[in-house]
Amino acid sequence: MDTSKFGAQGGFLIDLFHVCDYLTPASVVCAPDSPKDWMASQKARLLAGKAGEVLAKMKPHVEPSPIDDAQAPVRAAWRDLSNRLDPLDYPRAIALNLPIGFGAIESSHRYLVGPPQAPGGLGV
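^ that's the sequence the OP posted. Answer follows.
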C-alpha cells in the first residue's frame, strides 16, 4: 500500500458491490451453466479472505490478449483484482466492524470528511 497517501495506519477497501460488478460478467464465462452459484462461491471466498482462490478459479478462463477488453470479462476482472489484493481484506474489515459494501464505503466519506464547503468556506 502507498503509505505516502494514506499514512502508516491508513488503508482502503474495495466495496464488495464493485467487486461483484467485476465478477458477474466473468461468471457467465467461468460457469456458463451455473453463473449464480459460481458468483455465490466466489463471494464466500472473498468474505473468507481467499481472493487468491477466486483468481485461481478465473485463471483458466482468461481470454487471450488479442480479444478486446469489452469482449473479455474474465481477463478484465482477473487483471483488475490481481492488481488489488490488499484492498480485498474483507475479514479484517468485518472484524473491525467496518462497512464492506453495497455503497456503505462510498457513502461514509461524508461522515469522515465533513460536509462540502461553499465558496468562501461557508458550510453548505
